[in-house]
Design the sequence.
């Protein structure tokens, strides 16, 4: 089915757009996700393809590359309705990180080749940035790419890559300059995840799941045509990518946690704890925080629209979201009492153990995508103007 024209030029009102999107989601919600990994991925991809085919994918992307090009108010509506319907989000990390990067820095050929399959989830993209000795300090990365004619030969290791085990494409930062060049010798490459020499090993975490992976590159050949931007110019591109990731995620997370907080309030009522003044105070703090998150996400999107960049405020949002994720699940397990000892597979677990799983999962929230300590330094130096930390 061809994409619907839903750009700023439409005469459709915001309420009419909301009603049309809500109607689509009510008719096309995919139901409960299968438990088996492969079946769950297929179920997920089918919904995202349906979303794209009906013109409801990539609300902030230009229509020329398959997006909706929605004005800001409708991007908020889109996020709210997706959260309300509990619709699954995008697989992998391509749409929020690599996609905006390719839109801004990619060649027309790269945009034509990669963007539509990405938002339709015909191709799942995963990130290869962090390394065993280069997590928050990405300029210290050691994965090397040596130019050999029309190809780069890549050797090294990446770590903590979300969804890499199901990925078709990897977008990576590699070192093309000497080690001492740090951020001035980094290049942004896109590799076929099934290329000879790539080995992907899932990492099991404390929830029992394996959403992260390590990636090994052993003489992997990547065409120079898969380079985004100039050689040794990848660091500035990556910083833009991470800023867009935080801006987009902040709004999506805020609208999702609006729903999750309502569900937590329901849990408190079911547990008979809403009259407890301490519980009420903790819930009110969460209510205040989620409203601030929504305003902050809106401000970041507005900054991108006005200036093309989310700016250092994205670090404020990243810090707020990560700490909130932990706080809401800490309150949840306290409300559960002894039931917080039961994990997801236990038949007596409340709500199939979702709150306990969330508590365990969000222990990593203040580590992944830039640690809380790094975000606080960025806020102190670039937002508050405090003296820079010595190198």
Sequence:
């Amino acid at each position: 089915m061809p994409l619907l024209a839903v750009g700023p030029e439409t005469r459709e009102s915001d309420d009419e757009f909301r009603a049309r999107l809500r109607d689509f989601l009510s008719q096309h919600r995919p139901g409960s996700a299968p438990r088996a990994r492969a079946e769950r991925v297929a179920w997920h991809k089918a919904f995202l393809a349906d979303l794209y085919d009906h013109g409801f994918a990539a609300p902030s992307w230009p229509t020329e590359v398959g997006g909706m090009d929605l004005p800001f108010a409708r991007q908020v509506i889109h996020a709210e309705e997706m959260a309300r319907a509990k619709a699954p989000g995008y697989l992998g990390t391509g749409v929020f990180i690599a996609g905006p990067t390719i839109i801004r820095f990619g060649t027309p050929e790269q945009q034509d080749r990669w963007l539509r399959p990405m938002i339709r989830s015909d191709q799942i993209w995963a990130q290869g940035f962090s390394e065993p000795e280069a997590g928050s300090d990405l300029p210290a990365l050691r994965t090397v790419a040596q130019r050999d004619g029309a190809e780069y030969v890549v050797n090294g290791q990446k770590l903590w890559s979300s969804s890499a085990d199901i990925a078709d494409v990897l977008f990576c930062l590699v070192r093309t300059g000497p080690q001492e060049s740090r951020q001035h010798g980094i290049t942004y490459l896109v590799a076929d995840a099934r290329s000879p020499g790539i080995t992907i090993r899932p990492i099991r975490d404390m929830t029992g799941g394996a959403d992260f992976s390590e990636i090994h590159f052993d003489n992997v050949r990547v065409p120079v045509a898969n380079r985004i931007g100039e050689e040794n110019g990848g660091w500035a591109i990556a910083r833009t990518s991470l800023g867009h990731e935080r801006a987009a995620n902040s709004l999506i997370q805020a609208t999702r946690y609006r729903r999750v907080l309502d569900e937590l309030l329901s849990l408190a009522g079911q547990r008979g704890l809403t009259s407890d003044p301490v519980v009420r105070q903790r819930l009110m703090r969460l209510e205040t925080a989620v409203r601030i998150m929504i305003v902050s996400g809106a401000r970041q999107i507005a900054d991108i629209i006005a200036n093309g960049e989310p700016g250092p405020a994205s670090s404020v949002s990243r810090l707020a979201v990560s700490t909130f994720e932990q706080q809401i699940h800490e309150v949840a397990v306290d409300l559960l009492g002894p039931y917080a000892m039961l994990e997801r597979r236990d038949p007596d677990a409340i709500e199939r153990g979702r709150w306990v799983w969330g508590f365990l999962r969000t222990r990593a929230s203040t580590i992944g995508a830039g640690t809380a300590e790094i975000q606080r330094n960025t806020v102190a130096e670039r937002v508050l103007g405090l003296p820079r930390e010595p190198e």
Observations:
- The beta strands are 125-128, 144-148, 151-162, 169-175, 186-192, 198-203, 212-223, 227-228.
- The domain at 236-383 is CATH 1.20.140.10 (Butyryl-CoA Dehydrogenase, subunit A; domain 3).
- The two ends are 55 Å apart (CA to CA).
- The chain has three domains: 14-89, 125-232, 236-383.
